[in-house]
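User: Hey, quick favor. My workstation is busy. Could you predict this chain's structure for me?
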Amino acid sequence: MKSKSQLQDITNNKRPMDIQVVLSLVLIGVLAGILSGLVGVGGGVIMVPLLVLLLGFNQHQAQGTSLAVLVVPVTAIAVYTYHKEGYIDWRYVGIIAVFFVVGGYFGSKLAVNLDQKCSKKYLDLFFY
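Assistant: No problem, here it is.
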């Protein structure tokens, strides 16, 4: 468990929600949604690395945010733990979640219109 001063340090280091941050969050949400709809991945494979690379999140912040975006009863306990430790900024979660749904819609539309062999090739390329 983090002390109050450690939690204060984490929460005071949040970036302001400027246009660059919002556009980065939109991009992350759309890419994760498209790949989720297309090949069934998104959270740990797409969101975590992009949150680290594009927005400078640390690993815990990226993992907590990714889990919060994907929250279902299975991940609710893990999200609560990251939230309690101060690693989740719910503003980021909301924006990514909205665009994850949008990307998921377009990714799934694309996937259902692809030939099965073509879909398999995309999946193979993605994981290997």
